[in-house]
Amino acid sequence: MPQMFDRWPHRAPRPGEAMAHVRAVESGKGLGTLWRIFRLTLRHPVMAGITIVATIIASGLQLAVPRLLGEAVDQAEGVLAGGTGASAALWQTALVLLGVSVARGLFTMLHNYFGEATGHHTAYELRLAVYEKIQRLSFGYHDKVHTGDLITVGMLDLDGVRMFFATGILRVVLLGILLGAGSVMLLTTDPLLGLLALSFAPFVAWRSATSQLELRSTWLTLQDMLQNLSRVMEENLGGIRVVRAFAGEAHELDKFDTVSDKALALAHTRVDLRVNSTAAMNLSFLISMGLVLAFGGEKVLSGTMSVGTLTSFLTFMTILQMPVRQLGLMVNSFARASTCGDRLFDFLDLDLDIADRPDAKPLVITDGTLTFEAVQFAYPSAPERAVLTGISFTARRGETVGIVGPPGSGKSSIAHLIPRFYDVTGGRVLIDGQDVRTLTLDTLRQAVAVVQQDSFLFTTNIENNIAYGDPWAKEQQIARSAEFAQLHNYVMGLPTGYQTIVGERGVSLSGGQRQRLNIARALMLDPAVMVFDDSTAAVDAGTEQRIRQSMKQFAANRVTLIISHRLSSLMHANRILFVEGGAIAEEGTHAQLLALGGRYRALYDLQSRASEDQSEAAE
Amino acid sequence: MTDSALEDIDTEEKARRPPKAVVGSSLDREEEVFGKAYDPRVVRRIWAFVGPYRKNLLVSVAAVIIFTLTQLAIPLVIRHAIDHGMVPGGGSASATARTTLYWVIVGYGLIIGVNFAASYVQELVVGKAAENVLFDMRRAMFARLQQVSLSFMDKTEVGRLMSRLMGDVNAMQEFLETSVLSVGDLILLFGIIGVLLWLDPLLGLITMATMPVLFIVRLFWLPPAKKSFMDAHHANSANNGALAEGINGVRTVQSLDRQRVNFDLYEEKSRTNLLAHLRAAKFAQVMVPIVDSLTGMSMATVVVVGGQMVLHRQLDVGIMVAFLFYIQRFFDPIRSLTMQYSVFQRAMSSGTRIIEVLDVPLAITDKPGAVALGADMDGSVEFDHVSFGYRKDIPVLKNVSFRVNPGETVAVVGPTGSGKSSCMALVHRFYDVTEGAVRVGGHDVRDVTGNSLGTSIAMVLQEPFLFTGTVFENIRYAKADATREAVIAAAKAVGAHEFIVTLADGYDTRIEQRGGNLSLGQRQLISFARALVADAKILVLDEATANIDSYTEMLIQKALKRLLEGRTGLVIAHRLATIRGADRIIVLQNGEIIENGNHTELMAQGGLYAKLYTMNYSSFDDLPTGIGTNPGADVGKAT
After folding, report:
1. Which of A59, A132, A368, A478 shows a CA-CA span of 20 to 30 A to B212?
2. Are B534 and B479 in contact (CB under 8 A)?
3. Which residue in B108, B158, B229, B257 has the most chain A C-beta atoms within 10 A of its own C-beta, making it the best mutation to test that interface?
């Protein structure tokens, strides 16, 4: 096999290219989608070309075999020449037959290999495009879309598109040549026998196609049912303590049986469907063969046909049988490619609602001032529900601003708007006078770090997790960040220290430890704006106190926002904003707000011990 | 689109591979059970599932034999037709031949009729029986898991069990469906050999000379080919794993601006995947020309040798034709039998994993003559010198004794790993004590029925676990016959009614994704309502550690109060408010009770409780190192 194809591509594509490769050229569903998949295939013209040529040659050679066998039989019977001439002819036929077989094998190999390889290359490109798209789509998109749906697009739909060339297009070529050229050969040799030999084809083709389509639709339903079954079991196992605590085992088995029995019934229906069609296809083929044998035999008897010709008719039928029966798979491939392709291309063609503008500039930090200017906001998933109705404030370098408020007051949304996780619906967010929407996302997000309450832990070692935003970081930097986040001692207590693998299936970290890791992650970026979004909620008070201490040095060089519902986390801030109903209700230092005696004061009382005792006594 | 901006990225930086970056899991995949091709124990156990369908199996084996025999017969029929039914040239010979031809055609018709019936019966019976066996197996596993010990469930990830319940069971399907077919393949293989030797021993031998060649080639080909197929499979899982990670972690990726680096790493993974698949495709396809060449060789042999023999009237031409037909099918059984071997190996490893699940030891079962706790049970809970450990060498509780009187609320506090959760599990007899006794209502829990224990004790877990279904169904989970009024009353009592009625469909709102559409506080309140509906004498509650905002907290404290009214309460407490509300506080450390008394008494004692209380720690779990706890208690929690 030529090695050059292994090394392709010589250069890894850039993310932009990955998306450009598959950009919409054609639109429209159904045929438009299939055409688009075909065009993606044509991006590998050499491979696709070799495949198609090999397919044509291989099927041509395939057709030669029955004819050669027929000739050999005739030669053996001495129909064409007698004595030594016949023997020489047999040798010649045998050698040609051997040659044709070897060549057919080689070209079939090329056809199969390059057919698959073309698909894999296309899949490789699509994979990159899908991944890049996922990485670039906004939070707003990811809020709406279920992760399972994206996985379906990236795995199953991609496979459906990948297989289209080999199982769809190539099969059309193969079947077309075999049936087309084959029919011409047979019909010109003997019209009646030719018709009989081909008589099974329309029935089998139709049966195969319809049953495959039916099987496909029942398969999809069965998958849904198994998905349900899977969900029932997964919930049961995940919630096994609840099940046991309430003695719910019998109830759970009932639930299982209901779903399982339905799935089993459908599985049986599918067996019926499959068997009905395969048995019928077999029978119709064998009937055709019997007809050829009967009428052909009659012709041989009457001397109008040689045994060799009859043999070539019969062997031709055996060769044609497989591809005709596989017509159903071809139809299935078309159906699958068209639905999978629709979904895949719909996804790839999505507009990025948060992306660099064409004239986007890099962020330039001068004073390090963050300004909210009459900011209004609603989540894209619920545009009619205003979350922020007009927030204005300014925070200068070195300042720490606390943001507090009841749940749903919009305090977290403030954090999301700074690095453009979402875009404002009114007003502006400015960093040193530059509207964040006019900046390149890269420079903006490197300058703004938001530590969220629960951020994702990657299944790799602690070091890589901390250095996630700066994978070029040195060990000392990583350890220093961890020290500041009060995580270092814990990590050093682990047998493998920073090399310990965490995340799914790794060592599990407690909520507090995860949050400290998040903080360490953010510190690595040395951001101009640092936002703690309820990021110490699971950290105990003592450790939080120490984190606060170490953050003091950090805070000097940047704007720090602390969003929390725990007043102890933010009462030391230079300024505190009490947010309610999407607007700033109270603003001032801890002392000022206490003195004000408003909502902040009420919350303070609620959280302080004295009032709890009171409220308990009052009840 | 962001293309233009992306082009500007510093190329030098791009060229350097970041040393501290990976995409996808850094852990190796679960070890595959490999090697053993045939394990009689596994086969025996799987056979037990086939047992109920033994009759179907017999029928289908008989059918497949008949089917294969008819397949074998067809070329012979053609041979007969040619040699005896087609004698051209007119005359009486032709006339008898014509009669023969008619009879042969009639015979052929009968054979294909039988062929049709046999193939129909065989596929139908095997297909359905295989599905039945699969579903039976899955049910047996699931039912087993309902009864296995909780310590097994704690140790085992749900994902792994699921892969056995779905993946491994499905892997058996291929095996079950094709194993009967391989009987047919064997018969076909030996049938062809036999028929060829019978038709003409010499020509048969020469023609089949290629068969051992194929065997030997396949023998050398199989191990590296299989490895390449496995590699491709694993590269694909790794690739997909990285994609799933990219989807799940997308918010973190974006906020830390890692898209660029991730793209390059993902590209590497995708390319590895691509190359592995190309390699596997090469291995798969390289057999094609070999098989075709060998087939060609055999056909050429028949043409030359058989042709000469026909020429010299040593062989009927029909036999030559029959040979040509058999050769076309010659290699099919060899190919599918070697395939079947791989399927068998896969099924063996899946079977081993399935049996592991079926063999998980059962949890505690009722002892004979166990009594049911009645409604007159007083609701007391007593630990009498209880020692307990999940493993014999590591005791979790050491000689713990305390009593909770009817109607009393006791808060159990202590650092992580102190044994609080074990106490709670023992009350419900999730495990058995190693020494001493746990008594509920004066009865040793080992002497009462599990069911009555379940109805006497309501549990609220730390993580409020909700099932897919409506809010209503979730609240009455513990009591399937609870009326709507009772459910609403319970929800009102715990303060959940207010938010439930604001949901889209009120009590009939469907809970998706384990309650992902509700806040943690709301889920907590629903789980309180669920416990209230259960209306048990004893309430065991593991308080949520997650930080909840002060407003929700207030609601929960109120609900908790309502829930504990008139009940015996054993609460693993994390919040000072709960602890202060308790009648008594038990402080556990390293499996021993170190303090026991009410708030005032413990404060006066000046022990661990007083120390933590004065330091104003909101939780007793995430203690800083050094304060009376073993550092890194959660280190060994790797699963």
Report:
1. A59
2. yes
3. B257
Question: Does one domain contain both B148 and B193?
Answer: yes
Q: Which residues contact B639 (CB under 8 A, 6 or more apart)?
A: A505, A508, B155, B157
Tokens of A144: 């709406």
Would you state the pLDDT for residue B601? Answer: 86
CB-neighbour burial class of residue A470 (10 A; exposed 0-12, middle 13-18, buried 19+): buried
Which residues of chain A have a CB within 8 Å of the CB of B450? 247
Residue A613 binned pLDDT confidence (cut-offs 50, 70, 90): very low
Residues of A in contact with B480 (CB under 8 A): 251
Question: Tens of pLDDT along A391-413?
Answer: 999 999 999 999 998 877 888 89
| pLDDT for A16 | 67
Whether chain A has a CB inside 8 Å of the CB on B270: the answer is yes
Q: How far apart are CA B139 and CA B158, in angstroms?
A: 16
* B residues 273-292 closer than 8 Å to A (CB): 273-275, 277-278, 281-282, 284-286, 288-292
Residue range of the domain that includes A606: 370-618
Which ranges of chain B have pLDDT less than 50?
1-15, 31-35, 622, 624-639
By C-alpha distance, which of A439, A388, A395 is closest to A531? A395
B278 to A619: CB separation less than 8 angstroms, yes or no: no
In a shared domain, residues A401 and A506: yes
Q: Give yes or no: residues B175 and B221 share one domain.
A: no
In a domain, A79, yes or no: yes
Specify whether B207 is located in the same domain as B191.
no
- Kindly report, residue by residue over A446-498, the tens digit of the pLDDT: 999 999 877 788 888 999 999 998 888 899 999 999 999 999 999 998 889 99
Of the partner residues A230, A240, A493, the one whose CB lies closest to the CB of residue B632: A493
pLDDT in tens, B20-59: 888 887 776 554 444 455 678 888 888 888 889 999 989 9
> What is chain B's alpha carbon radius of gyration, rounded to the nearest angstrom?
36
Contacts of A412 by beta carbon, 8 Å cutoff, 6+ apart: A533, A534, A563
Q: In the beta sheet, which residues pair with residue A533?
A: A563
Q: Do A464 and B22 touch (CB under 8 A)?
A: yes
Considering only CB atoms, B20 lies closest to which of A286, A464, A503, namely A464
Query: Are B418 and B525 members of one domain?
Result: yes
What distance in Å separates the CA atoms of residue A287 and residue A44, rounded to the nearest whole number?
44
Structure tokens at B195: 């028929």
Whether A97 and A199 share a structural domain: no
CATH number assigned to the domain comprising residue A433: 3.40.50.300
- What residues contact residue A614 under an 8 Å CB cut-off, 6+ apart? none
Strands B538-542, B568-572: parallel, antiparallel or unpaired by DSSP?
parallel
- Residue B521 sits in a domain of what CATH number? 3.40.50.300
Residue A360 in domain: no
B247 to A147: CB separation less than 8 angstroms, yes or no:
yes
Task: Find the DSSP H helices in A349-473.
Answer: 411-417, 441-447, 462-466
- From residue A504, alpha-carbon distances to A69, B60, B245, B251, B516 in Å are 62, 46, 10, 17, 20
Decide if A449 is inside a domain: yes
Asked if A299 and A333 sit in the same domain, the reply is no
CB B455 within 8 A of CB B534: yes
* A359 assigned to some structural domain: no
Best interface-test mutation with B: which of A95, A285, A286 has the largest number of B CBs within 10 A? A286
Full residue range of the structural domain in which residue B393 is found? 381-622
For residue A542, the Cα-to-chain-centroid distance in whole angstroms is: 43
Shared domain for B210 and B167, answered yes or no, is no
Residue in A with minimal Cα distance to B636: A507
In contact, B442 and B372? CB cutoff 8 Å = no
Q: What's the number of domains chain A is made of?
A: 3
